[in-house]
Amino acid sequence: MDLLQFVLNFKGTPPWLNATALTALTDRWRPETHSFHLPLGEMSITLEDIAMISGLPIEGRALTGKVRAAGWRQRVAALVGVEPEPWTDETRKDPRPSGVLFSWIQRHFHRCPRDASPLVVERFARAYL
């Protein structure tokens, strides 16, 4: 799913992956129903499944990760393909010293175009996350 960079923002090391199990699940995924078709029946993916796959906790305190202000615009551009414009108002303090405002996400990623390439769809999905 190409979410490793997203997971690494919150964890220091990548999660352990069982390549054989992932290959078996990939072969049984049906995009038309958004579920896995297994010999024992149909299976949908749950929040707990994502937690096990990604290694991210789903209980307890909110997971926010480390905030690194330096180079955040370039990191945003690498993930979603659009670099936020620099703050130019000299009379007010920048309201986003290390991240984008929700209004910026809405303005740039409100609706994914119908004829979007897979790369554009991936960028919209990252912005949604």
Automatic annotation (TrEMBL):
Residues 18-129 form the Aminotransferase-like plant mobile domain. InterPro entries: AminoTfrase-like_pln_mobile, MAIN-like. One of its GO terms (biological process) is meristem maintenance. This is Aminotransferase-like plant mobile domain-containing protein. PANTHER family: PROTEIN MAIN-LIKE 2 (PTHR46033), PROTEIN MAINTENANCE OF MERISTEMS-LIKE (PTHR46033:SF8). Pfam families: PMD. It comes from the Eukaryota.
